[in-house]
Amino acid sequence: MSAPDPNIPASVEALGAEAMADWAARREAQQQAEAAELANLEALARDRRERLLAEVAALPSLPGVYRYFDAKDQVLYVGKAKALRRRVSSYFQRDHSGTRIGMMVARIVRLETTVVRTEAEALLLENTLIKQLNPRFNILFRDDKSYPYLRLTPHRFPRVSYYRGAVDKRGRYFGPYPNGGAVRQTIELVQRVFKLRTCEDAVFNHRSRPCLLHQIRRCTAPCVGLVTEVAYAQDVAQAESFLRGRTDEVLQGLQQRMLAHAEALAFEQAAELRDQIAALSQVLQQQVVEASSATGAERDVDVLAVQVRGGRACVNLAMVRGGRHLGDRAFFPSHVDDALGDLDRPAQDVAQRVLDAFMAQHYAGDASPPPLVLVSHAVDSHLVDLLATQADRRMTVQDQPRGQRRIWLDLCIQGADLALGRLLAEEGSQQARTRALAEALGWDGDADLASLRIECFDISHTAGEATVASCVVFEQHAMQSSQYRRYNIEGITGGDDYAAMRQVLQRRYGKLAEQGETARWPDVVLIDGGKGQVSTAAAVFEALGADVSRLVGVEKGEGRKVGLEELVFADGRSKLSLGSTSAALMLVAEIRDEAHRFAITGMRARRASARLQSSRLEDLPGIGPKKRAQLMQRFGGLKGVAAASVEELAGVKGISRELAQEIYRAFR
Fold first, then answer.
1. Residue 175 contacts residue 147 (beta carbons within 8 Å)
2. Which of 269, 343, 360, 428 is the most exposed place for a label (fewest CB within 10 A)?
3. CA 170/CA 20 separation, integer angstroms
């Protein structure tokens, strides 16, 4: 007797030969359909590749920019080329299998090209398109913050202030500075040495006596006339000379003024100038780059150093302005692995690519390059020519400096190394927390941890008023604030958290359920609540045909103490207590607290708006804060009160029929 076929279900085999023949025919038809579909897909892929190769062969051998798109018409990569045909064809002629470039090439459905006149124009257009399109496989430096400046306002008694934004002609600007701390430190120095005012004009115009800054010798109190306009203008001129790096002139001027006061026996004024000279000298001694040693082009210098390690890159930018070292700022590009991980390049080549990308994106934007830029690796000479043309000035870039410039570059390289080390340590800790949570939840340990997506929901209201639900997102080992969403909850009984949770989940995932298998569902959905909230969420997921195993509730522990929370599962698993020192619980608490914060912020804003709009409700005779709160809770907000009938209003405790009629008329 032959052994039973393991591919044939036992129930079918038991029905006899006719049933088995029918099952076998259906199985063969299914296999043929699958084979036909696979062959069709392969034919489409061949056609697509042939079409792309034909387009590539027709490209001109001219400078230009090319863009690759996938099946969803999303841009994959933007590149520049000295000769379009040769550069683009290299992607399709070489074997990139098993690499990230191979992954990109396999996704290319179509390409677009733009022909330009010169390679410099191609560099400029490439940078513009990278910023606009945010392609996945390009190196990207995301930095939405503009650089801060120190500003002297146009006024009889100019004010020294912190400024961030577009530079105009309505003031004198100094910088840019690498960060706000450097600006504030410089303002403090200007106050201590030159005693310029920092108060707003509105405060300045209404002072009747000197403020505390005058008492601690940080301001000469021009607001109450304790310094003449001429003397204050002299202080401003010296401060401006100092900020522009002419410290020798400032020191000589202060010394001459001190000697003049001493000869005139004005020893008190001479002592003040002596203190100014001492304060300024102390500052110059503390500077890594002394103003006296910086001349010519060395008064304004940018120093750029790149470090590549552990699959990440860091560009450290140190700024010297007016001969003073203002500090540095670290940048960490994204998509380094996607763009370079396939090339098996040495770290030196990777660093050069990263530095080229940084300079193109940084200096081709709002930041204008200074006359001298020191770099840790050689950069593209065409890029330097383009940036110099844009800035309309001569620009020198050195990668092998000597003397004092070598010291600056070494310090910048050390800063890049330290910043990258801190980043890798932080990311290692974040990945460890993600891994601990994935293991605790039973998530697939073989999957990419960075792809673990967690969405967390929380409900917030005040006694049923202004109910708001929040949804925060955790992915790539970090909170993704750009993907947060708030939902104003309407049409429920005030204070019904279950109904609020039901509504927000239906609104959030209803459209995903309609997309079917193409939808990108979160791997874990955290609910701030216990068994009741999780059961409500499970009912919504079951109605949508979604997997309830992804639902996890965060239930308060004994005594509602922090660190004793338990995880409640919707698929019937037992409660899980992680322990107060668990890295997984720390991550859950961080996500839950962020959802709570985001919900409360939205609720307070909505409540303030509603209460501002409902001021006419309290203006009615007989309506105070207590009755207003009762009405808002009963009807779920101001809209509910406005839509209520007289009978419904009169049904609220403390609201007579006459008062209900007054409320009804107030909203008509």
1. yes
2. 428
3. 90
Closest-CA residue to 307 (of 341, 344, 336, 335): 336
Q: Are strands 454-462 and 524-527 parallel, antiparallel or unpaired?
A: parallel
Q: What is the Cα–Cα distance from 223 to 203, expressed in whole angstroms?
A: 9
| pLDDT at residue 341 in the model | 45
User: Looking at beta carbons, which pairs linking 469-472 to residues 24 or more positions away fall under 8 Å?
Assistant: 469/500, 469/501, 469/503, 469/504, 469/599, 470/595, 470/596, 470/598, 470/599, 470/602, 471/504, 471/508, 471/595, 472/591, 472/594, 472/595, 472/598
Instruction: Respond yes or no on whether the N-terminal peptide bond of residue 210 is cis (omega within 30° of 0).
Output: no
* Residue 45 clears pLDDT 90, i.e. is over it: no
For CATH 3.30.420.340, the residue range(s) in the chain are: 453-606
Using DSSP bridges, classify how beta strands 524-527 and 551-555 pair: parallel, antiparallel or unpaired. Answer: parallel
pLDDT at 343 over 50: no
So what's the pLDDT on residue 492? 86
Phi, psi of 104 (to 5 degrees): -65, -45
Q: Which CATH number is correct for 614-666, 3.65.10.20, 1.10.1530.10, 3.30.830.10, 1.10.150.20? A: 1.10.150.20
Kindly report the CA angle at 664 between 659 and 668, in degrees rounded to 5? 145
What is the model's pLDDT at position 101?
Answer: 73
CATH of region 453-606: 3.30.420.340
Query: For residue 37, what pLDDT is reported?
Result: 67
Residues in the chain: 668
Side-chain-side CA neighbours of 142 within 13 Å: the count stands at: 9
Q: What is the pLDDT of residue 365?
A: 61
Q: Residue 503's closest CA among 487, 515, 485?
A: 487
Q: What is the CATH number of domain 297-422?
A: 3.10.20.370
Class of CATH domain 59-133: alpha beta
Task: Give start-end residues of each CATH 3.10.20.370 domain in the chain.
Answer: 297-422
- Residue 621 identity (one-letter amino acid): P
Residue range(s) occupied by CATH 1.10.150.20 in the chain: 614-666
In terms of Cβ atoms closer than 10 Å to its own Cβ (0-12, 13-18, 19+), residue 649 is buried
How far apart are alpha carbons 252 and 331 in whole angstroms? 40
**pLDDT at residue 344 above 50?**
no
Residue 235 contacts residue 195 (beta carbons within 8 Å) = yes
User: Cα angle at 580 between 577 and 584, to 5 degrees?
Assistant: 70
Give the tens place of pLDDT for each residue, 59-107: 888 888 999 988 888 888 888 888 888 888 888 877 666 566 777 888 8
Among 4-8, 311-315, 406-410, 593-597, the range scoring the smallest mean pLDDT is 4-8
